[in-house]
Amino acid sequence: MSGIVYDARKVKAYEGLIALGEYAGKETKWLNKLWEDLIPDNGLMREFMYYLDHHTFCDEERCRGYGLADLYVWQMDRYNLIRDIGKNTKSCNKEAMVLNAFRTMADMKKDPDTYVRRLTAGQGMDQMY
């Protein structure tokens, strides 16, 4: 038994991810892929645990100067552009955008050039990422 390490915080984080995902309408496969990317990334995992505890971003984890709050705002802008409404309505699921911000940060860490280009170039009405 001396080789087993049990971290209850990560179990709670996984349960929190599943609960947020269900509320946000995310598929289990999508959530599990995000979890696979959170596990080895201590900084992103710390951010996720902070979000679960405080329902806001700690916003200390950065990739090329961008934090989760930046990615959340980017998600919000994309939502508004796609729906061509210019503001956030009740139909806008903020938890889905939070999860999308975590997904984007995990992907951005793997391919920062692509995501920095997307964040800085803007997008036209006919471009979807």
Poorly predicted residue ranges: 125-129
Q: Helix segment count?
A: 6
Order of helices and strands: HHHHHH
Mean pLDDT: 86
Q: In percent, how much strand structure appears in the residues?
A: under 5%
Query: How many individual β-strands?
Result: 0
Radius of gyration: 16 Å
Q: Termini separation (Å)?
A: 47 Å
Instruction: Based on Cα principal axes, name the global outline.
Output: globular
The largest sheet is: none
Global structural class: mainly alpha
Report on this structure.
By secondary structure, this protein is mainly alpha-helical. Helices cover 65% and strands 0% of the residues. It has helices at 8-24, 28-38, 42-54, 68-83, 94-110, 112-121. Helix 1 packs across helix 3 (42-54) and helix 1 (8-24) crosses helix 5 (94-110). Mean pLDDT is 86; it is low at 125-129.
Topology, element by element:
Blueprint: H1 8-24, H2 28-38, H3 42-54, H4 68-83, H5 94-110, H6 112-121
Helix pairs in contact: 1-3, 1-5, 4-5, 5-6
Notable characteristics:
129 residues, disordered C terminus, mainly alpha
Compact description:
The chain contains 6 helices and no strands.
